[in-house]
Amino acid sequence: MRNKFEFFTAKIIYLFLAVILISCNSCFLNKKINKDSNEIKGINLFTKLDFVKSDNGKTFTVNDSVSIFYYKDLVLYRIPVPFDSMKAISKTKDTVTNQYVSTKINHKYFLFRQGNKIGLQYDSLNFSPHQFEVDSFLKFNSFSNAKFYDKTNDSLYKEFFDNNSVLTRIYVPKVKYDPSYNDTTKMFFSKSLNDIDFSFSSDLDSQLKMKLFRVEAIFNPIPKGLYSFAVPKRTFLFEMKANKESDLQMEKKYFRLFQSQMQRKRS
Fold first, then answer.
1. Which of 112, 148, 175 is nearest to 239 (CA)?
2. What is the DSSP letter of 252?
3. In whole numbers, what is the pLDDT of the chain averaged over residues?
4. pTM for the whole thing?
């Protein structure tokens, strides 16, 4: 969270989502995977980000999610792609007026073998995949990794356990360089997620012997004066949960398809 945010432009939405995905990717790839296991494991990553429009000061929230699965030494990213269905309700000679019907969520699947430079992107089981460069995919246009915890600038303000043995730690920065830096960071840890090969902060996980699974970066409200409008309290939320889907048949099909296609490339 110590990356500087320019939150008054819509561009930050894509910039920040890119940064957090890269951070998550690098954490995930640094973990060892049991190549002898036939089990598919996975996590779901969730983000909920509050932003302010620069032209009128109105707030809006961006929600996003991505699922990551791994099998032996293979990694699969399942990324949702919304598709809006429309229907024509009126036609003239030059124009067609459409009406929104519904939104369907499709998925793109990105698979690669750890250590390989090239992966395969699938839009469907029925179409040929496209190659992609793994490093470029993970770097996401060369954005740097996000930092949730800065041991130099973050000061522990309070910590406590709840009834579910979840540890909450509240940090405040020693120096708040400008309004694009959050005022408070709340971190949530649990031992129940220690078997997940993923980390938002390997340093804190190792230190506490618990898994950091939720981060809330809180921005205090800013009165009118610094800007032409008052900025309300905002929160950037990041959370990971173990994927508990019982039906992973589609993911199994993509893993098998990827293995067979990569085998044919080697032969």
1. 148
2. H
3. 81
4. 0.75
